[in-house]
Every structure is written in structure tokens, then in C-alpha cells.
């Protein structure tokens, strides 16, 4: 007999517990049924669960149940992504301390305790929602077994000669003090100033005008560029220019990336103010001068500004340039700055010791694998193949440059330490 009044909370829990206790959705390794495997994206442990977590899994759940009804042996794993910067940032907010303020092992212990609390909450909610994942055998990206697999894979690549270590420019967040992937960047419109400065020609009273939004990086200037078609400034190629306030001399080179219709047509190159500086450094084999530390403080190169934060130094050096009659004028502008999506801090380009994976020698395998897969939607195949051929520059640059930085996989931070 049915109850006169249906109590859905009681009935739902009864069947949820029944499914769980009887391993209804367990993947049968010994089954002869055709396997349908789902690469489940583990929810990130970076705060309390929200509708986005459940909504994304609803789509996967629909597919899993469809294939199970077709008689297939569905592998639908479930786990937690609790090994990364989002989790660290969450824990820092909870304990109101930064990771570097605590001993490394102590912070790890706190992270494990806090993530366990959230994982229990996530687990109960996914179970109560009736998702048919294999909840009993859920995994964790910080578990000893996962670490062991990662380390064995890393050592295997090293043994085969597919990885190497080198110092190279990388996107760096001075607030989180970690490398950033391109996918972790957000563009933000910010107000700034174009500062027109006097760069005197060495040994002469004549100066040229150089406009920059980053005067705090004057101590890191390694050269000045003009456009090879710039007849007005062509004579500078035979000269050296004196960096304002700091007084050292730098050479002048020509490069077609310099815009003829922006600023004065004379551009300072420092290491590294932006991605163009990074390209120029590699292309012209320029020296590297590090202007600030990993936590965003000016280095000894900044002389009396050493130890100041980047923004504070910018303000102070503009005042000094004005006092010394080296600031011609300022223009207020609004421009786009790349920021770290985790904290909103403008990212810098820092030279860091990093691990790299050589992918050039796997060009054919990567391409062939993309051709063999059945893509949904089909246009994603073209996007992948273009990524292999064009985006990574495969076949166009030396092997050393055709790489994937391990910072994308969360390894750069541990390598740095």
C-alpha cells in the first residue's frame, strides 16, 4: 500500500542509501559488456558548493544513465580536485593567514583538514542528488596514490629525455606567488598614465622622447627600439641613450614591432614589462635585468627605491623624474591589463627555473590521435588540430621553444621551492 502522504525526503534517502550500500553503480572490471568511460571533471575544493557544480554534473549524469540503459558497462568516477592554488586561497581566507607565514608542513596539514570538511559536504550533497557516480571509490588529486602516479610519470618522462629544466620568463602573480597559466588570466580595464620621458643621447645635450606606462621599470631597461622604416629616428641607431635618473647607457636597435603612430616611435625595452619585451629579448638575445622580486618588491637595481612595492615605486619615481626635469608630460589613459583570476592582481613576467616537456617530437602522435577521435561537436576537431599545428608553433621554432610549461599542471610551484 502506498502512503497516504508521500514523504519524499524519507523515500529519497531510503533509495539513495540502497543504491550506495549495494554498489548499484559500481564499475564491473570483469564484465564483458562494452565499456563507456567518462572522464569526470572533479569539483574544485575552493569554497562551499553551488548550483554550478550540480548543474555541470546533471549533463554528465544524463549521458551516463543513457549508456547504462543501452546495456553498456559505464565507468563514471567521482573525485575532488583539492591540490592547487584555489584550495590554498580558500584555506588562507579561512585561517586569515598566508601560506608563506606558516611552516610548509603546518600549512599542508591545515589544508588537508579544511578540505576534508568540504569534501564531506560535497559528498553528501552529490549523494543526496542521486548522481550515479561510483561514490564509494572516489579519488582525490592530493591523495598519496595520486602523488605517487604523478611522480612516477614525471620521472619516467625525465628518464626518456622528454623533459628538461631551464630558466625562462613565466607569467607570475606577486600576490599568490605562483606561476599562472594563460587560461587563468582575466583582462581588466584600468586607468593609468602615459609618461613622456627624456632619454638623452650619450655625450650630447640632445634628447629623444620615450613614452611608457611603466616608469618603475626604468632600472631594467636593456635597450631602446625604433621602427626600421622610421627615417626621423634612424640616426639613433649609431648612438646610445642614457636612461633617465639611473644614468646608465643602452643601445638602440630596429624592430618592425615598433609602431610608427604610437607615442614618440621610440620604445624602451625592459625585462620584462610585457610580452613584446619577452619576444624582443629572445629575438635579439638581450640581457635580462630583474627589477622586482617574486612578491612584487623592487630589487637592488632600483637603487633608492629598493624594497618598495611596484605601484608605490611607480608613483615615487614619477615624482623624482619630475624633480629632475626628465618628465616632459603625462597623458591619462585607460588600457587593458592582464590580471590573475584568483585574486585580481596584475600579472608580471618573472624569470623562473621551470620544468618543460618537449612536445615537438610528438607532433605526429598528437595529430593522429585527434583524427581518430569522434568529436562532439565536430568543429572541435578542427580547433584541436589547429592548436597542434599553429597555436603551439609546432614545426616553426627550435625544440627548446616548442614546450608546455609544467606550471600549467601545477608543478612549477613545487619545483621553484
Written overview of the protein:
The protein is an alpha+beta fold. It has helices spanning 8-21, 51-69, 85-95, 104-128, 144-159, 275-284, 310-323, 363-372, 379-391, 412-416; strands spanning 35-37, 73-75, 79-80, 139-140, 163-173, 178-179, 185-201, 207-212, 221-226, 240-242, 249-254, 266-270, 327-340, 348-358, 403-405. The protein has 2 domains: 8-142, HUPs (Rossmann fold), CATH 3.40.50.620; 183-346, Isoleucyl-tRNA Synthetase, domain 2, CATH 3.90.740. The chain contains 10 helices and 15 strands. The longest helix is centred in the first third of the chain and has 25 residues, at 104-128. The protein is elongated, with a radius of gyration of 28 Å. The N and C termini lie far apart (66 Å). Residues 391-417 have low confidence and may be disordered.
Compile the SSE list and pairings:
Elements: H1 8-21, E1 35-37, H2 51-69, E2 73-75, E3 79-80, H3 85-95, H4 104-128, E4 139-140, H5 144-159, E5 163-173, E6 178-179, E7 185-201, E8 207-212, E9 221-226, E10 240-242, E11 249-254, E12 266-270, H6 275-284, H7 310-323, E13 327-340, E14 348-358, H8 363-372, H9 379-391, E15 403-405, H10 412-416
Parallel strand pairs: 1-2, 3-4, 9-11
Antiparallel strand pairs: 5-6, 5-14, 7-8, 7-10, 7-13, 9-12, 10-11, 14-15
Helix pairs in contact: 8-9
- Give the overall shape, derived from the CA principal axes: elongated
Count of separate DSSP helical elements: 10
* Euclidean distance between termini CA atoms: 66 Å
Unreliable sequence segments: 391-417
Number of domains: 2
Structural class: alpha+beta
CATH fold name of the largest domain: Isoleucyl-tRNA Synthetase, domain 2
By DSSP, the count of extended strands is 15
Q: Specify Rg, calculated over alpha carbons.
A: 28 Å
CATH architecture field of the largest domain: Alpha-Beta Complex
Average the pLDDT over all residues and give the rounded result: 85
Percent helix: 25-40%
Amino acid at each position: 500500500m502506498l502512503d497516504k502522504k508521500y514523504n519524499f525526503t524519507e523515500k529519497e534517502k531510503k533509495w539513495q542509501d540502497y543504491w550506495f550500500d549495494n554498489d548499484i553503480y559500481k564499475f564491473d572490471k570483469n564484465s564483458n559488456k562494452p565499456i563507456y568511460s567518462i572522464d569526470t571533471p572533479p569539483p574544485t575544493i575552493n569554497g562551499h558548493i553551488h548550483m554550478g557544480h550540480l548543474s555541470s554534473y546533471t549533463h554528465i549524469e544524463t549521458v551516463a544513465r543513457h549508456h547504462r540503459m543501452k546495456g553498456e558497462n559505464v565507468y563514471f568516477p567521482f573525485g575532488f580536485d583539492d591540490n592547487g592554488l584555489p584550495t590554498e586561497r580558500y584555506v588562507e581566507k579561512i585561517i586569515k593567514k598566508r601560506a608563506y607565514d606558516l611552516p610548509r608542513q603546518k600549512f599542508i596539514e591545515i589544508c588537508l583538514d579544511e578540505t576534508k570538511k568540504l569534501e564531506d559536504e560535497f559528498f553528501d550533497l552529490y549523494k543526496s542528488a542521486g548522481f550515479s557516480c561510483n561514490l564509494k571509490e572516489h579519488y582525490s588529486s592530493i591523495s598519496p596514490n595520486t602523488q605517487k602516479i604523478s611522480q612516477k610519470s614525471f620521472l619516467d618522462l625525465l628518464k626518456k629525455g622528454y623533459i628538461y629544466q631551464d630558466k625562462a620568463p613565466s607569467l607570475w602573480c606577486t600576490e599568490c606567488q605562483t606561476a599562472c597559466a594563460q587560461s587563468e588570466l582575466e583582462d581588466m580595464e584600468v586607468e593609468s598614465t602615459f609618461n613622456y620621458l627624456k632619454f638623452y643621447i650619450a655625450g650630447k645635450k640632445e634628447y629623444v622622447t620615450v613614452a611608457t606606462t611603466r616608469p618603475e621599470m626604468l632600472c631594467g631597461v636593456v635597450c631602446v627600439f625604433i621602427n626600421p622604416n622610421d627615417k626621423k629616428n634612424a640616426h639613433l641607431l649609431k648612438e646610445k641613450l642614457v636612461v633617465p635618473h639611473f644614468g646608465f647607457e643602452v643601445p638602440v636597435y630596429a624592430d618592425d614591432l615598433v609602431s610608427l603612430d604610437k607615442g614618440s616611435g621610440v620604445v624602451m625595452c625592459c625585462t620584462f614589462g610585457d610580452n613584446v619585451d619577452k619576444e624582443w629579448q629572445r629575438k635579439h638575445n638581450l640581457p635580462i635585468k630583474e627589477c622586482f622580486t617574486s612578491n612584487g618588491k623592487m630589487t637592488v637595481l632600483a637603487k633608492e627605491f629598493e624594497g618598495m612595492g611596484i605601484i608605490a615605486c611607480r608613483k615615487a619615481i614619477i615624482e623624482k623624474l619630475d624633480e629632475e626635469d626628465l618628465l616632459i608630460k603625462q597623458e591619462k589613459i585607460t588600457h587593458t591589463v592582464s590580471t590573475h583570476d584568483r585574486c585580481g592582481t596584475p600579472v608580471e613576467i618573472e624569470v623562473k627555473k621551470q620544468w618543460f616537456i618537449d612536445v615537438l617530437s610528438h607532433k605526429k602522435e598528437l595529430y593522429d590521435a585527434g583524427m581518430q577521435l569522434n568529436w562532439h561537436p565536430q568543429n572541435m576537431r578542427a580547433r584541436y588540430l589547429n592548436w597542434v599545428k599553429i597555436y603551439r608553433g609546432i614545426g616553426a621554432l627550435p625544440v627548446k621553444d616548442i614546450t608546455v610549461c609544467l606550471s600549467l599542471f601545477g608543478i612549477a610551484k613545487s619545483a621553484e621551492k
